[in-house]
Design brief:
This protein has helices at 46-53, 76-86, 102-112, 117-130, 146-158, 176-193; strands at residues 3-12, 20-30, 35-39, 61-66, 69-70, 87-90, 164-168, 196-200, 212-217, 220-224. It is of the alpha/beta class and 228 residues long. It has a domain at 3-95 and 163-224: Rossmann fold. The protein has a six-stranded mixed sheet with strand order 6-7-8-3-9-10, sandwiched between helices. Bound molecules: adenosine-5'-triphosphate (ATP) and magnesium ion.
Length: 228
């Protein structure tokens, strides 16, 4: 499934501050199996762009289409449903639910989709095993390390077998080894399932691990030759 972004602009309006133009006429296309590293300094608009791609923030101008479906042509309820089926989102702050244990957090997207609890649990446990957390399935987030929480968040983003995986700083606060493993998981999944993967990060460790790299600065997105 391919992703196409056309002439996308976004301005945050706020009564207290002057309008803030964050994205300015951005266009980009990615095919299934392609992986893009989205770079840019803090405040350059990476999370804004990711939220727009996830169907969570309506852009001021322009369009996003995934597999030929115009994301913002859908009514909000339809888009919510589409997002649950189509998008895997690893948030910048992992956003695990504190009262649920690891497997329940991973299985959450399935329970929204009405999957029976037994089936959700066995799929969640399988994924936790693949991220090396089989022994932590019953731990709540506060009982896990930062890196372990991030892996739970990645497992949760993958459980619905999404077509588009968006990961916002997935390696922030991980050490080099854990960061590399987290990225392996995302990239392996993208290759195996031929999905589109976009990773937003300013972590230099990620340079050289992506076929496509784009820099966001002053509202413009400029694609670079991938560094070897
Ligand atoms: N809800 C909002 N209302 C108004 N301005 C916002 C809002 N969210 C973000 N901004 C502004 O938009 C700009 C881009 O923010 P964004 O969070 O997209 O940056 P980022 O590249 O993800 O930064 P970081 O690397 O720190 O996560 C910033 O100047 C920020 O202050
Ligand atoms: Mg951000």
């Amino acid at each position: 499934m391919s992703l196409s972004i056309s002439n996308l602009s976004h301005t945050y309006s706020s009564s207290a501050l002057s309008d803030r133009n964050v994205l300015n006429d951005i266009s980009l296309s990615l095919s299934g199996g392609e992986q893009l590293l989205l770079r840019g300094i803090s405040g350059s608009g990476k999370t804004t762009l990711i939220n727009i791609l996830a169907g969570l923030l309506s852009p001021s101008r322009g369009s996003v289409s995934l597999g030929g479906q115009d994301v913002y042509a859908m009514a909000e309820a339809e888009r919510d449903e589409w997002r649950r089926k189509t998008i895997g989102y690893v948030f910048q702050t992992h956003q695990l639910l504190p009262l649920l244990n690891a497997w329940e957090n991973v299985a959450m997207p399935l329970s929204f989709a009405g999957t029976p609890r037994g089936e959700s649990k066995s799929r969640a446990l399988e994924l936790l095993e693949s991220v090396g957390l089989a022994n932590h399935a019953n731990n709540r987030p506060k009982e896990l390390s930062t890196g372990q929480r991030q892996r739970v968040a990645i497992a949760r983003a993958l459980i619905n077998q999404p077509e588009l995986i968006l990961a916002d700083e997935p390696t922030a606060s991980l050490d080099e080894h854990a960061a590399s493993e987290a990225l392996d998981l995302l990239q392996q999944n993208c290759k195996e399932r031929n999905t589109v993967l976009i990773v937003a990060s300013h972590d230099p460790l990620l340079n050289g691990r992506f076929e496509r790299v784009a820099d966001l600065a002053y509202g413009e997105l400029v694609e670079k030759d991938a560094v070897a």
